[in-house]
Amino acid sequence: MTREAPTPRRRATLKDVAAALGVSPATISNAYNRPHHLSADLRERVFQMAQQLGYPGPHPTARSLRIQQAGALGVLYPERLFQAFSDPFSTEFLRGITAATEGAGLGLLLVPASSSSHPAVSTVQGANVDGLVLYSLADNDPRMQAALVRQVPMVLVDQPRLEGFPFVGIEDQHGAEMAARHLIDLGHHKVGIVSLKFSPESFDILITANHPPTCHYRVSSSRLEGYLEGLQLPAEHLPVFICEHNSLQNGALAATQLLDAHPDLTAILTMSDQLAFGVMEAARNRGLNIPEDLSVVGYDDGASALQAGLTTIHQPSETKGRLAGEALIQLLQGQVPAAEQILPTRLVVRGTTRNF
Amino acid sequence: MTREAPTPRRRATLKDVAAALGVSPATISNAYNRPHHLSADLRERVFQMAQQLGYPGPHPTARSLRIQQAGALGVLYPERLFQAFSDPFSTEFLRGITAATEGAGLGLLLVPASSSSHPAVSTVQGANVDGLVLYSLADNDPRMQAALVRQVPMVLVDQPRLEGFPFVGIEDQHGAEMAARHLIDLGHHKVGIVSLKFSPESFDILITANHPPTCHYRVSSSRLEGYLEGLQLPAEHLPVFICEHNSLQNGALAATQLLDAHPDLTAILTMSDQLAFGVMEAARNRGLNIPEDLSVVGYDDGASALQAGLTTIHQPSETKGRLAGEALIQLLQGQVPAAEQILPTRLVVRGTTRNF
DNA sequence: TTGTATGCGTTATCAA
DNA sequence: TTGATAACGCATACAA
């Protein structure tokens, strides 16, 4: 097993350096982690020998195992990670997390969603992290249970609560209600809704609000409730298009189908800015002017909403991320963070809504 | 905070389950990893006992150490992670990486930059990853050496090359040259340049192109060279403002100082879209119309450039990320990726440049 | 189908 | 200041 061959095909370890130097492994470890526990001279010789043998320094995983710290925080995202970087609004959330956690020297691990070969739960089970942020997961997402089982510190954001874990969210329903009331105040009676998805496997579908399918996403259900509350219109005459993705393209599709089925609509409420942009594009393509012929309201108020002059509901997504990150760090330090932090939403009236 | 579950003083381990069940540790391990190596009945009993004891399943770090796989890829970013989520253009790059790596079940670890308490090299030494993407690091960034020492698979993107590691980049200089020539073709003779940073510690400074300070960033130096090549103007009359940050605010500051010192400028070349937006804002604030009074060219062509009608240099940042991710995965699989992939840049003329 | 023994590469506790 | 040794928690040949 032991070979004195000068060509170690295998990565050199701390023991190899110790052996080559005729000292104990502890000394090598000390050279890296406790400089004052050994003479400067010996320490220098250790580093020289390490370089000579190609010893890359303490193995991170072995060290993590030993000191019981992974040095990273994980984020569970409802969709494929690809999506996390597609919406300017969700990158703001991630920015908030890093703003809070980077100073502590903690990395941010984006945990991959499921794929054919790698079920989602296995990736959350295998994530080398000291804590998790559960972001906007569906109430039937198996990863929630998998995360719970891991018994690591967790913070929940915009998703179903779990007893004993800090929650960070926004006044989702209230924001939607304000959006709806804004339209009512402007005199609109024929309003369509473009919704975010209802369940992980959902696909594009046009329904009416009186018979909604089961909704597994807290954000979607809260906002829909807010819309209904604010509109006070008969649900059976309220068309709702449920989108599979939160994308401009999907918003355009939604608008097309809504307007095809209900040409008399004078306004559309959307559950995200991205969807609103898509609606606007589709509306213009069929010759409708905004806001003259059609009023549109978004949700989120990401960076691009200002640029586009979109009337929308503002939510502090970066702050949301920061609070989540801070709560998680407090948990790691044995402190007790606020059990619940609900951030305010507010209506921002710009140029895409108008009197009817 | 307190949970009703039987709180074990210490996290239960595989051994505990084995002991409680009177079987060997290997059996527990098999129950989780090799279902077919034991009877369905015993497997079921294992899971039940695990639940009863609160055993969270195999410890990810211990497992990682044993199987020599971290299950994640790391990204080294030139600035604080906060910045990675601030520029729509760099999020496109990250999106490309995840698009390539998520399918393989690999997480993406964003390695934190330095802070007062945590030197940057320690975080790269301690990152639990199977490979690294070095993105746009300065040639004097100590993390490059730290990464090299680790002897893990690496891919270099938009930064100094290292012998033996795949490189992914763009035609940086060529793009800049086209931008400059575009202005010359339009008849401009008085041109200012807004540059990205030259060194990690750099601060805002106005210089002339004939005496540039040492540049540690490959992207900045390539683009500056391209500008000089394309402009063919005397360097001593070419003002360059070097920005500390790649932000709209910094672009506005740059424009203000450039135009204060050189009121006769008719055009400004910027090394990023973000900087261009800032220049445009500052120009408008001082009563200059774009492009009538001032032509502006960006770089990157991120999503917002189209919306703003910015003349800019397009680069395929998402593709860049995808290729980097794919190359890294090939490395992990023992395959040999292309040693070098240089993606094309192209001039996109929109509404912010005009004849002079 | 199940058990035994060993090693993955460290760090921590003690003793010298 | 340095050394011997036992964890850290698991997976895998190999034996039974």
UniProtKB/TrEMBL annotation, chains A, B:
Domain HTH lacI-type span(s) in chain numbering: 12-67
Pfam families for the chain: LacI, Peripla_BP_3
Key words of the record: DNA-binding, Transcription, Transcription regulation
Record InterPro entries: HTH_LacI, LacI/GalR-like_sensor, Lambda_DNA-bd_dom_sf, Peripla_BP_I
Keyword Nucleus set for record: no
Statement: the UniProt record of this protein carries the keyword Transmembrane helix: no
Name of the protein described by the UniProt record: Transcriptional regulator
Originating species: Deinococcus roseus
Lineage: Bacteria, Thermotogati, Deinococcota, Deinococci, Deinococcales
